[in-house]
Amino acid sequence: MEQDGREADSIVIVMHIPKTAGSTMRTFILDQYEPGQVYRSYREYGYGKQDRLTAQTRCIIGHDPFGTHHQQLTKPYTYATMLRDPVERVLSEFYYLKRWPRHDPYISAELEKRNWDLDFYIGSTDEKFLNRTFNTQTRYAAGQYSPDCPDLELAKANLSRYFSVVGITDMFDDSLSWMRRQFGWRDTPYRNRNVAPGRPGEERPTGAQIARIAEMNGLDIKLYEWGKANLLNRLGESDK
Strand order in 11-15's β-sheet? Predict the structure, then answer.
């Protein structure tokens, strides 16, 4: 990943792709800054009304695709994010919506009508469903709000040019360590948030369902593998 050497003085924009361990990271980040220095752009949770972008802002975090915030900034900025195995991410979000239906009342109401049918969730062509089930990570990194034709090459270019850290959820400790190093964050304790309990046996996805999710997220799989290889390379270089 390209670096411009400004990380310590830059506003850090954390692109929180849903169900990539961002909630755990958010609690850690809030401990790094003083009150009023973090702008939490989570309008679905009510944030973004009381949290404001001000002259004191040093970090922005939210469920917003790349490019949502940096055009408003007059100070240097850099980005960070986490990528997750795409099949695990889609399944994790499905079970999260089942546990917390108020998170997305529209999708949850549609799923409840069908007794929480996973096949319906991953097979729906409703754009609100596709935003969650179809190459979501590529769309976020490419700065695209619509699920139509996510641009993998643009996503890679944005991550290479603008992101100081692209972490990997299943390498969470290493990813967070790299963020601490890049941004001068303290080594404070954290606890996992929004971690799903064990899934009952009857809810275990079938091989066909897993294959379907992988097929729908082919671009995300390529992006995830690319990001993981880059992180491993950077960690290897730092150990030399």
Answer: 38-41, 59-62, 11-15, 77-83, 163-168
3-class SS of residue 62: strand
**165 with 182: CB under 8 angstroms?**
yes
Percent helix, strand, coil in the chain, to 5, is 50, 10, 40
DSSP reduced 3-state for 35 = coil
CATH number, domain at 199? Answer: 3.40.50.300
Residue 62 pairs in a beta bridge with 15, 41
pLDDT tens digits, residue range 127-170?
A: 999 999 999 999 999 999 999 999 999 999 999 999 999 999 99
Mean pLDDT of the chain: 88
pTM of the model: 0.90
**Domain for residue 2, yes or no?**
no
Tell me which residue range forms the domain holding 162. Answer: 7-238
Distances (CA, A) of 31 to 35, 125, 180, 222, 229: 9, 40, 12, 33, 29
Report the C-alpha gap between 166 and 158 in whole angstroms.
Answer: 11
pLDDT in tens, 56-107: 999 999 999 999 999 889 999 999 999 999 999 999 999 999 998 988 999 9
